[in-house]
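Thanks for the sequence, V.! I ran Acetylornithine deacetylase/succinyl-diaminopimelate desuccinylase right away. Repeating your input here for the record:
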Amino acid sequence: MSPESSETKRYPTDLPSLAAALVRLESENPPGNESACAEYVHDWFTHHGIESTLIDEPDPDRQQVGARIGTGRPTLVLNGHLDVVPAGDSDEWTYPPYGGVIEDGRLYGRGSVDMKTAIASAMLTALNLRSDIENGCLDGSIVVHAAMGEETADPGTKSLLDAGFDGDVGVVLEPTQCRVATSEKGMAWYEIRWPGEPAHASDPDRGANPIDHVRPVLARLNDYDATLRERRDPLCGRAYATVTQISAGEGSNKAVLADRTAVTLDRRILPDETIDAVDDEIEQLVSELNRDHGIKATWNRNETYSSAEIPIDHPLAEIFRDHSTAVTDAPTEPWGIRASTDVREFINHADIPAITWGPGSLAQAHTVDEYIDLDEARNGLEILERAARTILSTDSFEFD
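Predicted structure:
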């Protein structure tokens, strides 16, 4: 047997090796280092004879990839994001965060579960089904997204859909332990800020310390959160409003009263809530604080992920449930994911029915020593290929 070529090693077709190769390409966001990983994905597709495009929108310094096999319908879009959250202090990791270490049946590294193993599964599904698509055994086509910016709500997936890498149905390959999510919460980050009057701390009465207002602000936001927890979606759970940051006096002399204070509020939004209605709630809350405490606060919304949902019995969801339970013991009950994913871009922006589904546990995402169990990953690849074959057989899947 001839030794494995360097090109085969560089562009592997087995799931563990390909996933590890992607993990080794650091693509942290922030700041947004996706381009090197995007170039590798593009080169991998090109090496294996699959048409793909490096996309410069929305940011030419942060490229992403769209690939396509076939021209028929239905078209299945497999979506993954290239960016990963920062690994932090590498000394805290047992394995190097970008080492792509495989040990004891696990792949370790930042992005191993969120979500480069899933991207590798999408790439391999396209490759493994290419022959049947091209020779007409399967009537439909496959599109693969390797998107930028998901972790910070950048419009990577949106721009890929707008560039023509769209389809009839979509799967956002986040780690759900192969459970099908037909809905998801939205999220909005609000900054509520108010001014102070700087003065030397040796004579504080000459100024106004904005930190004094933190207690009433937090008390009002805690009351708001308690009210929200009474709202509940049957699939996604409760709404929440959580203070995640408080800032005052950064960069100034410690002996000087701060010129302003701000809090960041993380608002989790249920599928039946609108962002306009949430904005109105925040406006009323801030107005009450100003009226009752003389705070003079203002607010703005920094980042927004809208909620999204499709019918729980949509054929796409039923197909993935059937194949998931045939291969694994994934629950089949209707479910909604509590995190925010790019599925909203499919459903709300492009009007494409989509689910969130993928191998691996969401509990591992963003953690030190992040890993994915490779047996579960292989099961995920099998399910994905089986479901794709079902969907691309128009006799068994209605897409209109």
